[in-house]
Amino acid sequence: MHLGIYARRGKGDTQVAQKVSVTFACDYDSKEIPDGEHLTRSFSLDGRDYEIDLCEKHSQKFDETLTRFAEKARRATSRVSRPKRRTTAHRQRSAEIRAWAKRNGIEVSDRGRIPAQVISSYEESHK
Fold it and tell me: Per-residue pLDDT for 2 more than 60?
């Protein structure tokens, strides 16, 4: 792909034009890719993400090769899981446990995880 960018600069009254040209090349064989035929393919391998710029011929070869392996593979579950949001009820219960603990002389932080021993003591006292 050729992209013309023109910039004017110079000293005093002198004007200079600059033209920049960008040419894509196939990452597989380093040959120039004609305008409009550049394809960027994305893939992952061993947990790392990659991109490769290919001409149409090598893009088809890439697809055919990966398709043969994908047909024999199983789908993976998502690697990224979002943290669960705490419900209002959960926050209220945590506040009740903290208040109970402080009234009973048990040290607990104002934020963060409440120790399991404190929770079990609270539950035992509220049976």
Answer: no
